[in-house]
Design brief:
The chain is an alpha+beta fold and 227 residues long. The chain folds into two domains: 74 residues, 2-Layer Sandwich (Phosphorylase Kinase, domain 1); 141 residues, Alpha-Beta Complex (Aminoglycoside 3'-phosphotransferase, Chain: A, domain 2), CATH 3.90.1200.10. The protein is built from eight helices and ten strands. Strands 1-2-3-5-4 form a five-stranded antiparallel sheet, with helices on both faces. The chain has a three-stranded antiparallel sheet with strand order 6-8-9, with helices on one face. Strands 7-10 form a two-stranded antiparallel ribbon. A hairpin with a 3-residue loop joins strand 4 and strand 5. Helix 4 packs antiparallel against helix 6, helix 4 packs parallel to helix 7 and helix 6 crosses helix 8. It starts with 6 loop residues before the first helix and ends with a helix.
Length: 227
């Protein structure tokens, strides 16, 4: 595959073949490059993802950032591959009770990770702003949210990896930062229902997360924001 890449990206990739061209709705293009992934997006679109990749990697929560390069036309983010498989792996989906519990434990672990020094503390405003632009609605529920913990920001099954039954890392960190824990809980529950085609495992997830930290009013607010 022929791509004109910045010199730093080409050096980091070396002779690895670029495989795939998975273009998402955001316009990002994603390639496998040996034991790394290259994401290419519009200019200035990947700076947040790159900084949060570094932050999560330093916490042992993701693979390292290898290169981040900006040009006038495009951004390039090269990160190591997180080992294992994502939570939409058929083998993991075949164990819904186990998977729901492990996801709950993983969310609690993330939210108890020290967040000082995180470069972004705006996840609540970012989520609410995106929804306002998308729906044109006012979102009074957003006033209930608190900037309290480190969040993944898009805590869906494809973005959480396990290896050998243990958490191995997060991917797609462009929405990560400090925000309300219930944003992650909302997305995890939504993704469990979507991928397991049932809400049967919601309580298992919340029990494993720890009901002591679940505020029913704020979780309901997150649901209402996304209706």
């Amino acid at each position: 595959m022929s791509l004109v890449l910045p010199e730093a990206v080409r050096r980091a990739i070396g002779g690895a073949e670029l495989v795939g061209d998975d273009t998402g709705r955001s316009g990002m293009r994603v390639f496998r490059a040996g034991n790394a992934f290259l994401k290419i997006g519009p200019a200035s679109s990947l700076e947040r993802a790159a900084r949060m990749q570094e932050f999560f990697a330093a916490k042992g929560l993701s693979a390292p950032l290898l290169v981040y390069e900006r040009t006038d036309e495009e951004d390039y983010l090269l990160a190591g591959a997180v080992p294992g498989v994502s939570c939409i792996d058929k083998g993991l989906l075949a164990k819904p009770e186990w998977l729901s519990a492990k996801l709950g434990e993983t969310a609690r672990m993330l939210h108890e990770t020290e967040a000082s020094g995180c470069p972004y503390r705006d996840c609540n405003e970012r989520e609410a702003g995106a929804l306002r632009r998308e729906t044109g609605r006012e979102l009074p529920e957003a006033r209930l949210l608190r900037a309290e913990v480190l969040v993944q920001g898009d805590f869906c099954l494809p973005n959480v990896f396990f290896r050998g039954g243990a958490f191995s890392g997060f991917i797609d960190l462009g929405e990560a930062g400090v925000g309300d824990r219930h944003l992650d809980l909302y997305w995890a529950l939504w993704s469990l229902e979507y991928n397991l085609r049932s809400d049967r495992w919601n309580d298992r997830f919340l029990d494993a997360y720890g009901r002591d930290k679940v505020d029913g009013e704020r979780l309901a607010a997150c649901r209402a924001m996304h209706q």
